[in-house]
From TrEMBL:
The organism's place on the tree of life at top rank: Eukaryota
GO molecular function: ATP binding; kinase activity
Classification via SUPFAM superfamilies: Ribokinase-like
Keywords assigned: ATP-binding, Kinase, Nucleotide-binding, Transferase
Name of protein: Uncharacterized protein
InterPro entries: Myo_inos_IolC-like_sf, Ribokinase-like
């Protein structure tokens, strides 16, 4: 798909090119993982004095990427 300044995308199909309006949101769903990242770099996990939690997982990475590009992307998941 290719977009333009008007928010319209063109889907290229086997039969030709069709125009349609792009939905303003991409909803991502899946699981959120939690990474425990050492607060100090350059040491082994056993030597680390503390950790911070960071959200991760493929779905979260997509949501963050879309947001960085200026889009709106809510997440759906189960807690």
């Amino acid at each position: 798909m290719v977009g333009n300044d008007l928010g319209v995308c063109k889907a290229i199909t086997a039969n030709g090119i069709w125009d349609f309006h792009l939905v303003d949101r991409i909803v991502c769903y899946g699981e959120i993982l939690t990474d425990f990242v050492p607060t100090v770099g350059g040491v082994s996990l056993a030597e680390a004095l503390g950790f911070m939690k960071a959200a991760s997982g493929a779905s979260v990475n997509v949501v963050v990427g879309i947001s960085i590009l200026g889009g709106s992307s809510p997440f759906m998941g189960k807690v």
